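Review form for a predicted model. The reviewer records the input and the model, then writes brief findings.
Reviewer: anonymous (R2)
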Amino acid sequence: MLAAGIISLVVFFLLALSILFLPSFKIGTLRIGTYWLIAMLGAATLLLSGLVSPQAVWDGLTADSEINPIKILALFFSMTFLSVVLDEVGLFRYLAQKAVAVAKTSQFGLFVILYFLTAVLTVFTSNDIVILTLTPFICFFCKNTKIHPLPYLVSEFAAANTWSMMLVIGNPTNIYLATSAGIGFIDYFKVMALPTVVSGITEMAIILLLFYRKLKKPLQPQEDDFRIESKPDLVLGVIHLAVCLVFLVISGYIGLPMWLISVVCAGSLLLSVIVVRLVTKKNWKYLTDAAKRLPWQLIPFVLSMFIIVICLNTCGISEKLGEILGDKACVWTYGGASLLASNFINNIPMSILFSTLPVHLTGASYFQAIYATVVGSNIGAFLTPIGALAGIMFTGLTTKYEVKYSFLNFVTYGAIIGIPTAAAALGILCLMV
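Model under review:
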């Protein structure tokens, strides 16, 4: 047990250091994330030392269960592909430009519209996609109009990592935690809808108070003639996403697993886009760019963390941690612990680990622990860039576009906004479960 615990702690510590100081490096034109290499090294060490058996890993990867990481990755990548295709076609940028046009010269109007646009897009796609799409847009727009980007960047990041709680597909951590507990699409939504709405309103009010003076200044309206060039791709993407969401909603009633529905829809979209390319003789840029943008490095990261958690389970460490958290006030203990743990080891490995901690709980206490961990895994991204891959991408983009958003800014605004937002979500959650 001691050896497994030490190796796991070293891996988590190195993960935190890499995210803070060396999140990635380049070999030629290829950029490689350090976080998944460290996770792979840790998993390999546990396997080679005999602390976890290859048979246990194989059994976990081939298990006909909801917590099979292959199924979870299939669901996440399929939904990401559907969203990325729509982004590559230009839907998100088009909607953002329309939002700016509606706001005219009012920064308050622009703030509110962009906040709710971020919220809606996040609910129906995912937080990572929205951050990758809207962050560059906000940086460019604010630079061109000579307004301060901070209110909009803080708002976008907060909204993307709060409204992602509403549906199971909003964050890979939601997918893992919900499927590990056998929670269906509708059951998840029934519980998490109200906590998401209340915490979203709470954070929006806080952000408005923080940036009231900056938002009082008028902005210069900007004309933009951006148009969606490939309408057939847009129509195909919207139809496939809509059909996928409908079937996910009714998946519990028709007996189809969510991962299979999403894979079929993504595969159908892929074939449809290929047919459009062949028939119209258009270039393959949308498709190839979408494939490049998929988070492929997440595959070795999730699988490696899964191996580490298997080891912690086998050695009894997960059970000990569950006992420490206890069985009283599970919403607050698991919510607070997961919020903090996300910022030590990142929210994905935290969710994989925490999904195993409440196994000794029964009835409502078990589901309180799972849903509270969902809150911690999403809002935990507020506090430091370590908290989520979304934070890593966000800070990387602000640096790339020369926007001053220091680590201290991230932590300060994250604490001011994140702690009350998490408290609001957990408080409402107490009434729901």
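Findings: The CA atoms of residues 316 and 386 lie 27 Å apart.
Further findings: The chain is about 75% helix and 0% strand.
Recommendation: see findings above.
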